[in-house]
Amino acid sequence: MKYALRTIIVIAVLIVAFFIFLESGVYNVSAMVPHNRLTLWVINTLKDNSIEHRSKALKAPNNLIDSSLIKLGFSHYNEMCVGCHGAPGISKSEIGKGLYPHPPNLAHSAKEMPPSELFWITKNGIKLTGMPAFGKTHSDDKIWAIVAFMEQLPTMTKEQYQAFDRDTKDVNDE
Ligand code: HEC
After folding, report:
1. Distance between CA 83 and CA 104 in Å, rounded?
2. Cβ(142) to ligand 1 under 6 A?
3. How many CB atoms lie within 10 A of CB 101?
4. Is the beta carbon of 121 within 6 A of some atom in ligand 1?
5. Rounded Cα distance, 83 and 91, in Å
6. Could you read off the pLDDT of 28-64 as tens digits, one per residue?
7. Which of 58, 59, 93, 162 could be joined to 116 by an S-S link, Cβ 3.0–4.6 Å?
8. How far is the CA of 18 from the centre of ligand 1 (A)?
């Protein structure tokens, strides 16, 4: 009985302390200061497991190496992603540089993540990070085209990226 009472008191004190912490303003939400390790661990564990769980049933189309799909993906990437994530030979914009968490280099992400996760993130975005949901404005087909382009990033040079830019300009000028 005594043990149960002590447990209840400890839990009540912890809950009160947690609310005092929330109300106090002691935690720094500035995007200039990184999270502490515990907060980072909680956020990353929540995020990684959520993305893995929600994307595992998705099946990538088997035409991700189709050159016209990759080209279509480039035009969307160049318009919507490059400012935050940069590209071969292009650094992030001032907005991209100021965001926290930092928008990662997608050449690394494409090496580490399966296409299904790249698709899920591009379609759904990630809460409280600045990563927008493109599923509100873009069809699944267009998002798969962006994924097809991202799959090329790990081996893409600055010259190849510029060549895509010239190619799509030629098409738009025609
Ligand atoms: C306004 C800035 C912004 C724009 C525009 C943006 N992103 Fe992001 N993106 C982010 C941020 C910030 C993160 C990091 C989120 C995190 O760490 O949880 C991110 C994360 C990602 C990730 C996860 C990468 C990883 O290794 O965890 C992918 C994939 C991604 N973005 C794809 C895209 C694509 C594709 C586009 C364009 C269609 C795009 N993003 C446009 C800000 C942006």
Report:
1. 12
2. no
3. 17
4. yes
5. 8
6. 999 999 999 999 999 999 999 999 999 999 999 999 9
7. 58
8. 31
